Amino acid sequence: MRRIRQEEIELIKKLSNGLFIIPEHVRDMKDGKMGSISFDIEKKQFRNEQVSSAEYIDGDGVLVSIELTSDKNGKLFELDFWKVNFEPLIVYPTIEKVSIKAVDKP
C-alpha cells in the first residue's frame, strides 16, 4: 500500500468527471510495471462497472489503454493500464495526452 500520487489523482478526476471520492492510499498491481493501481486495499470487493476508458501513446510510441472501474458498492475499484506490447510504462500520461473513449452503458 502507498499514498496515491498527484498525477494519478489528476488522471482519475478527468476519467471520472470528479464523481468519485479518491482514496488517499492505493495498491500497485502486478502488471509488469504498466502503471495499474487498485483502490481495493483489502482485496474484498469485485469489479462491477467500467467508469471510463481512455488511451494514449507512451514515450516509445506504443499505445496504452486505460480503464477506470468501480466496485459493486459504487466506489473506485481499479485504474488499469494495458500497454499493447506488455512493456513497462515509460511516461505516465498527463491529462492533456489522454483521449477518453465513449463507454457503452446498458
Q: What topology does this entry show?
A:
Layout: E1 2-3, H1 6-16, E2 25-28, E3 37-38, E4 47-57, E5 63-71, E6 76-83, E7 99-101
In short:
The protein has 106 residues and is mostly beta strands. It has 1 helix and 7 strands. Helices cover 10% and strands 37% of the residues.
Radius of gyration: 13 Å
Q: How are the strands ordered across the major sheet?
A: 1-2-3-6-5-4-7
The total count of helices amounts to: 1
- Mean pLDDT figure: 90
Low-confidence stretches: none
Most strands sheet:
7 strands, antiparallel
Tell me the strand percentage band.
Answer: 35-45%
Which bin fits the share of residues in helices?
Answer: 10-25%
How many beta-strand runs? Answer: 7
H and E string = EHEEEEEE
Number of domains: 1
Which structural class fits the helix and strand makeup? mainly beta
End-to-end Cα distance: 34 Å
Shape from CA axes? globular
Please tell me about this protein's structure.
- It is a single chain.
- The chain is mainly β and 106 residues long.
- The protein has one domain.
- The protein is built from 1 helix and 7 strands; from the N terminus they run E-H-E-E-E-E-E-E.
- The termini are far apart.
- The mean pLDDT is 90.
